[in-house]
From TrEMBL, chains A, B:
BP terms from Gene Ontology: metal ion transport
PANTHER family: KTR SYSTEM POTASSIUM UPTAKE PROTEIN B, TRK SYSTEM POTASSIUM UPTAKE PROTEIN TRKG-RELATED
GO molecular function: monoatomic cation transmembrane transporter activity
Name of the protein in its database record: Potassium transporter Trk
Annotated organism of origin: Neomicrococcus aestuarii
CC annotations in GO: plasma membrane
Protein location: Cell membrane
């Protein structure tokens, strides 16, 4: 019992000193376990060990709900390999703070005050602050997550049966797609992905709904469960996330559709209705779902750039989606809007957004852009691929989207590790990462006088 | 006298209602005059009219102190054409608010209170607030500018004589380079640019010094004139700008040198000393000078990306350099640093930077990035050129740098107009632009309660 007690003590100490660092460690442990599982012969179709860089990349891609692949999910992995991938996606989709809270409860039976606050903020904006609620919050989050994924599975499975699959296969595929969709993972168990279903709305609509709900985030889902469609009762975070999500879906679909309308390598030759379905599907998937109907390498360069922008924004905070998040973008735009109008406060829906919020938002964006730029630079040294492809793959990794022009598979191991690091940093969140790595947080005892430099 | 009185009344009204809009109009007028002058046969070497898009592009490039060209400065333009270009550069280098203040004083003999405040802030951070000082401030700015350019000319001219030019030619070239350097314009009157002087430190050092001083900005230059090297007496703006400038020169030179060290198409075949000179020169010129020793199209893609980043940052506020400005970058980094350490205030050199400053900084960066991205997207539709070249030329235009892979000259007229618009917006500054275009600035009578969305 001595080592277990030591581990318990260690977790307790880290949890009370730095919950962010605990979350980081918990997440790393989960990835290590799945890397090991995927490297074993039982996970591969040909019953051999998988190379470490490929196993690690796939484990990171699964647990960080990204969906980038270096080997074919359908062909390289055995049934068990695919089970591990979807289990990794399910666990990863809960979010790193939820995982950390679970681990912390399991090992030490209690959470520190700061850990409880962090865990709460990752699951709900409405938690009243009584710390005892974390356990029940955890239960609600996991229950909700499971119920939505079961519902998706129950819709998808009959369709696969109708399309000719055996009932066990259809159940398996239904479950795999349900987990992949709600958790915004974008893995597909079919070797040619979703292409055979590109006109099949019985498949596409559940996938779009699942991805969209997952991308809203647990804090929003819990508010919706509590207050339904009564807009006035929603909190500010929910209002911004929902309106921002719909706006981005519409803008993305219009942009994608217009840019690709006459591109014969993608949707140029289709009927108008099919073009519209493709545009809406692409728009929803771009902000983190990662499923694709058309070959991303065949898109116009401008479509790739627009996709880059949408991927970088991503979905809701504490969701299964990645990116800098919708509220971050919204706060930036509201601040710029207020600045241009010469207003003192940044406002939205009759609320003032505190000044400190903007500082967090800009930190998220700049750190994210810096990570992507650095990774791009490093990858450019490893491959003759063009900048637009490298940028696309890097942003796709950082924003845990999983759309790809297949560059991941072409890169040497060093490039795969860089992309894996991007996925990891993107899923953890740059702020959590920075606060986990910072040595200590100082309390401020005095303030300096103010002085304003000229800006711009 | 009736029309003149009407014009005077109009200028007075605009100046008191929106100094930003007046500045915009003044700047547009200057560009219109130079477009006309350059389109005339007297300006071209072959004595014919120059196409409007080429005349406009060159006028914008000169007055916005950019240095991008669509026709060879040495071959296409006559002596008078080159005189107009350097006159445009000299006027443009004073800055749009200085131009507006001059115009306003010339036409209406007085400045409104808001106009005086704006003009002051564009020239000095130390102005005590007595509005009568604007006239003397204008005198100081113009005198300083002329003296520095004369000094550069006096250093450069003897060297051109030594290199075999006649005295009048050497005087003319000395003046042209002096104006081009201090105003960070990057135009060269020689058909093969600076390449013949690439090892000539008697030419290169004055150019680097001139560009560097110009890129600090008048508010910093005035503080340096007043307090010399006594660091403790400098204001916050000067401290940040000077330290930031030196840091960026060093980082840029190291980065550029390392990335190009073995590139035989640029500096790979040179002696170590020459490589270092080239790296330092490139680093200084990248943040807005725009002179180049090596063919920019021959650089590694990663060097182009690093150059993109340095160009986007640019020089000091209210300087002859462009970009988002050093203080803007510094405020963002200080804010992120404070956020990561969990500190309440953003601090530098014993001063707290006011919260509102961050909002301005983020507006500058996001508006700039949006402009560049939009222009890139539009230009991609007009040319088969690769993304890295289009991005390079767009950022070079926005940040009024003038480094080029020669894409400007290859583009159809529509592309030239887009780049001209970018140079214009970049030189005016996104904030001035936004405030000139905004309909009215509202005073706020009440505040909403605060509510904090989840960020990141
Ligand atoms: K994904
Ligand atoms: K320039």
């Amino acid at each position: 019992m001595q080592p277990l007690n030591a581990a318990r003590l260690y977790v307790q100490t880290v949890a009370s000193n730095s919950p962010a660092r605990l979350a980081l460690l918990a997440f790393l442990s989960v990835i290590a376990v799945f890397t090991l599982l995927l490297a074993l012969p039982i996970s591969s179709a040909n019953n051999e060990f998988t190379a470490l860089h490929d196993a690690l990349f796939t484990a990171v891609s699964a647990v960080c709900v990204t969906g980038l692949t270096v080997v074919s999910t359908a062909d390289h992995w055995s049934f068990w390999g695919q089970v591990f991938i979807s289990l990794g996606v399910f666990i990863g989709g809960l979010g790193i703070l939820t995982i950390a809270a679970l681990l912390s409860l399991a090992v030490s039976k209690k959470l520190g005050v700061r850990g409880k606050l962090m865990a709460q903020s990752s699951m709900s904006t409405t938690a009243s602050g009584t710390l005892g609620e974390v356990r029940s919050l955890l239960k609600i989050v996991i229950t909700t997550s499971v119920i939505i994924q079961l519902a998706l599975m129950l819709v998808l499975t009959p369709r696969f049966v109708v399309l000719g699959e055996s009932v066990p296969t259809a159940l398996w595929h239904g479950m795999f797609y349900a987990i992949s969709a709600f958790n915004n993972a974008g893995f597909t168990p079919h070797s040619n992905g979703l292409v055979p279903y590109e006109m099949d709305l019985y498949i596409l609509i559940p996938l779009m709904v699942g991805v969209f709900i997952g991308s809203l985030g647990f804090p929003v889902i819990l508010v919706l469960l509590q207050f339904k469609g009564v807009f006035s009762k929603w909190n500010l975070h929910t209002k911004i996330t929902i309106i921002g999500s719909f706006a981005l879906v519409v803008i993305g679909a219009m942009g994608w559709g217009l840019l690709e309308w006459n591109n014969v390598r993608t949707i140029g030759g289709m009927a108008t209705g099919d073009k519209i379905v493709h545009a809406i599907f692409a728009s929803i998937m771009t902000r983190s779902g990662g499923f694709n109907l058309v070959d991303q390498a065949y898109m116009e360069t401008n479509t790739m750039l627009a996709t880059d922008a949408l991927m970088f924004v991503g979905g809701g905070s504490a969701s299964t989606a990645g990116g800098i998040k919708i509220t971050t973008l919204a706060v930036l735009f509201l601040a710029i809007f207020a600045e241009a109008r010469g207003e003192r406060d940044v406002k939205a829906f009759g609320r003032t957004i505190p000044e400190g919020t903007l500082r967090v938002a800009i930190s998220v964006v700049v750190l994210g852009a810096t990570l992507v730029a650095t990774a791009c630079g490093l990858i450019m040294m490893l491959t003759p691929a063009s900048l637009d492809r490298v940028l696309f793959e890097s942003i796709s990794a950082f924003a845990t989207v999983g759309l790809s022009t297949n560059l991941s598979a072409e890169l040497p191991p060093a490039g795969k590790y860089i992309l894996a690091a991007l996925m990891f940093a993107g899923r953890i969140g740059t702020i959590t990462l920075a606060s986990a790595l910072s040595l200590k947080q100082r309390d401020q005892l005095y303030r300096y006088p103010e002085e304003r430099p000229i800006i711009g």
